[in-house]
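Structure request: Protein FAM169B, Pleurodeles waltl.
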Amino acid sequence: MHCSGGLSSKSEKPHSVDKMASTFQEDSYPMDILAESDSELFWEMTKRYYSSLLQQSPSSHEFFSTTDGKQVKIGISSVSRIPLYRDDSEHSILVLMNPQCKETGLAVYLNKSWWPIEDILKTSNSLKDGLIPVQSFGERVVLFVLNCFIFGALEKGAEDEDAAFFVPHSSREDAKIFWQNGEAVAFYTVKPKGCLCDVSTSQCYLLPVLDTAFVRRSHRRRGLMTMMLQDFCQRFSAYDALGISYPLSSAMFRVCQKFLQSHPEEQDRLWEVEAPGDWSQRENIWLQIQLRQRMSVRAVHEAPKDSFKEEKGCSVKGDVEETSSQSSVCQIIEGVVDVPNLDKASEVGLDRKETSASNDCKEKVAQKLMDPLSLVKYPNKRKHKKDDSGDSSCKQCKSGS
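Returned structure:
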């Protein structure tokens, strides 16, 4: 959800002379200041400030200025504590919420100052350009803002209706941020093979899985999502199979289609998977594309001839270009399905040799390709559903478990 009203270009500089504030430079941004070594001091300062808000007098006059001249009062009723990491409830950052739109954040309290959301995504470090692994504490904060506020509220539109809201990532999430012209504009995260599917289970991922991905609206249709998908495939080139979290949004499905058409060598490697990624939990993405194309052609052949009357202003070329354009949202699902406990799941590998399970899986899909009418409902099988307490399958997009 996006509310009217801009944000100030930069909040007031802190005047403290403590260790953290003394590193502040005129042209610096929070990302440049918050090094990994500063994290404990950061949490201490945040708790201290929140305690002061609890004791704040109702007549207090602390405000945050927006670009349209509005003053937003800073108080305990307008400040929310939000966990920075999904697996750490003890450490929360302070977010000033928009009083007209409670789901939208205006600023984040960092380094003894309230910083507009947009400024948190900036850096004065000219070396940050392209895809950079997330390592420092400051980069974790940038990832959180991109994930939960930019996509989660400001830039989630109608075209993303089949994409679930992203939940905060873990404190050690394998992630990369794409930097361009001093701003963070995209990211993607990976669940490496052998990592736990969830803290509450002993199941581990059986293959590397592209879990979440996002590109800002201002940088869409420039090939960034395809570029990140290619980077993911190159990073794990030693693996015979790679996964993308189930279910794929329609936008991500189009990205995969374009990528696999231009990179045929990856067609046998990319699978739509449910955690932990057993063969019974995989669907080859390229075969799904072929199925949809065959069924589409069959539907056209069987449609009444009257439905093909030419209409003015209808451009087939335009439709094709729109379908192949770069989209921006990769659906998040980190769910754990109910399968037998895998005592040594992390040791289960993907041999370069094809397993019998792999052959059986491919033979079944090949048989389906020969008779597409038997799968009339197949394309809708992966449709994303709202959280259902009665369903034991993957639904971490809502619960954050």
